[in-house]
Amino acid sequence: MAGERKMRAMVLDGPGQPLRATELPVPEPGPGEVLLKVHACGVCRTDLHLLDGEVDVPAPPRVLGHQIVGEVVAGEPPAGAGAGGLVGVPWLGWTDGDCEYCRTGRENLCPNARFTGRDIDGGQAEYTVADTRYCFAIPAAFGPLDAAPLLCAGLIGYRALRMCGDAARLGLYGFGAAAHILTQVAAWQGRRVFAFTREGDERTQRFALELGAEWAGASEQRPPEQLDAAIIFAPVGGLVPLALAALAPGGIVVCGGIHMSDIPSFPYELLWMERTLKSVANLTRSDATELLELATRVPVRTTVSRYELADAGRALEDLRAGAFTGAAVIVP
Ligand SMILES: [Zn+2]
Ligand SMILES: [Zn+2]
Predict the structure, then answer these.
(1) 220 phi and psi angles, rounded to 5 deg
(2) Number of Cβ atoms within 10 Å of the Cβ of 213
(3) Cα dihedral 283→284→290→296 (10° resolution)
(4) Nearest ligand to the C-alpha of residue 159?
């Protein structure tokens, strides 16, 4: 693997700047790493926060993209990935393994964690390198396009769902990539799903009902019944008091995004009666293993819009505008 081989890539030079198409040397894997030929890379709202500077990129230029599905072309594949099998790379790219969080099963909170497509070059390129210990074999039931949205939308959504405990009536605020996967998982688990979208977004409301939600409406609407849990995927702080107001006593609101606009003040009454408000941060490797196994059993069917590598910037703007239902995936 000569260092002079070049690949096409999209890079972020700094906040507020458009992604730039360029050529970079094909990266070389170090010990314990794999070189992947990227077959698909999902677009995530976190990429928009990185683009906009709402989440910091410590050392630009950086290749974004943290829902990578690829084929191992050099290095030792992760457990379960046979020859020619697909491998997935999620947001969690590396942890120190010995801090108090890593030692207690909470590597998602590791203060020294490094994240794919933020601290480590990601999948908006023809090739990428990843630490084998943080890669996963993609179940044979999924192709690259179907699997890509599972790797962040699916994983973070699943972690958020686990925080909802046994909640039977589940509200999902912001019906994008994560909610479209989670609705299928939650309905399969026997939960009742209530989908909240932007006001007047009837297309997305129909989409939610098709996937198994029993009710769909605008975020400002009260659901027909009180909810046992609500997950907020939209980065809109104003949804927090709305979701709390929709909860039954003892219910929980989980904020599923890495960034959210400020939460307006709200009366204590909305939290009273043992209601809980919390956030979900990153993922652990066991979240990934569990979700990939569960997605095979459901089975989860992702709805994807496909973009060329050179159109990565357009994919992000389409995500911002809510121009597609389901998930956007870049195919280098
Ligand atoms: Zn750690
Ligand atoms: Zn993500």
Answers:
(1) -75, -15
(2) 26
(3) 50
(4) 2
Ligand 2 center to 292 CA (angstroms) = 16
CA distance 332 to 315: 13
pTM, full prediction: 0.96
Domain boundaries, the chain: 6-152+283-331, 156-279
Name 263's Cβ contacts closer than 8 Å, sequence gap at least 6: 237, 238, 240, 241
Ligand minimally distant from the alpha carbon of residue 177: 2
pLDDT at 97 over 80: yes
- Whether residue 74 has pLDDT greater than 80: yes
The CATH number corresponding to 6-152+283-331 among 3.30.160.20, 3.40.50.1000, 3.90.1150.10, 3.90.180.10 equals 3.90.180.10
Identify the pLDDT of residue 83. 73
The class that CATH gives domain 156-279 is: alpha beta
CA 113–ligand 1 middle distance (angstroms):
7
